[in-house]
UniProtKB/TrEMBL annotation:
<feature type="compositionally biased region" description="Basic and acidic residues">
    <location>
        <begin position="224"/>
        <end position="233"/>
    </location>
</feature>
<keyword id="KW-0963">Cytoplasm</keyword>
<dbReference type="InterPro" id="IPR011990">
    <property type="entry name" value="TPR-like_helical_dom_sf"/>
</dbReference>
<feature type="repeat" description="TPR">
    <location>
        <begin position="94"/>
        <end position="127"/>
    </location>
</feature>
<feature type="repeat" description="TPR">
    <location>
        <begin position="136"/>
        <end position="169"/>
    </location>
</feature>
<dbReference type="InterPro" id="IPR019734">
    <property type="entry name" value="TPR_rpt"/>
</dbReference>
<comment type="subunit">
    <text>Oligomeric complex composed of two heavy chains and two light chains.</text>
</comment>
<dbReference type="GO" id="GO:0005871">
    <property type="term" value="C:kinesin complex"/>
</dbReference>
<keyword id="KW-0677">Repeat</keyword>
<dbReference type="Pfam" id="PF13374">
    <property type="entry name" value="TPR_10"/>
</dbReference>
<feature type="repeat" description="TPR">
    <location>
        <begin position="10"/>
        <end position="43"/>
    </location>
</feature>
<keyword id="KW-0505">Motor protein</keyword>
<feature type="repeat" description="TPR">
    <location>
        <begin position="52"/>
        <end position="85"/>
    </location>
</feature>
<protein>
    <recommendedName>
        <fullName>Kinesin light chain</fullName>
    </recommendedName>
</protein>
<keyword id="KW-0802">TPR repeat</keyword>
<comment type="function">
    <text>Kinesin is a microtubule-associated force-producing protein that play a role in organelle transport.</text>
</comment>
<feature type="region of interest" description="Disordered">
    <location>
        <begin position="213"/>
        <end position="233"/>
    </location>
</feature>
Amino acid sequence: MGPPSQLSLAASYNNIGLVYYTIGKYSKALSSHERSLEIKKIALPPNHPGFAQSYNNIGLVYNNMGEYSKALSSYERSLEIQKIALPPNHPDLAASYNNIGEVYRNMGEYSKALTYYEKDLKIILKALPPNHPDLASSYTNIGLVYDNMSEYSKALSSYERSLEIQKIALPPNHPDLATSYGNIGMLYERMGQYSKALSFLEQTRDIFKKSLPPTHPHVTKSQTDVERVKKKM
């Protein structure tokens, strides 16, 4: 069995792992990605980007399983390989910084999360066009950390930058826009600014109503959010 057929087998296990991950079968996803990695160890040179892909996918599964220290070590191995194999401002590096930031945020280590999210943002600003949706995601993630830290004015400016980009980059009733309106609305609610909160949360509800089926949890939750804020006014 030569390297080409070994690599196609590795790719197959990787794809099977992604499918299991998508349907929430994490232990099966993990064993598929690990099989893929074992084959790559035979077929590829040591710091090939293919290893980074495997470690990244394994990290993704561990993060969703709540096994944060394992997720972190997988993501860090992915990042080490990318630093050797890729140019310094490659978007894959940004994605790794983002992934590590997310794990730290899940662990409640907000200052570390912020450091990695800012590294992600720095690369995206250089590597992608100015109104790319990934840039909006970066600002959202930074906003979420500031929100978690109760630094509301910083959270608000990050959320607003994200929303500005999404308004340019996305169609008017895109669910990501609804999420951004929701982030800003909930933030205003925490700040006690209920009329502002209400106008943003109503926009969230209206977009979800247009873009999702009526029984979708996002539709019911957004309606509940609107009613809750109305009671506080």
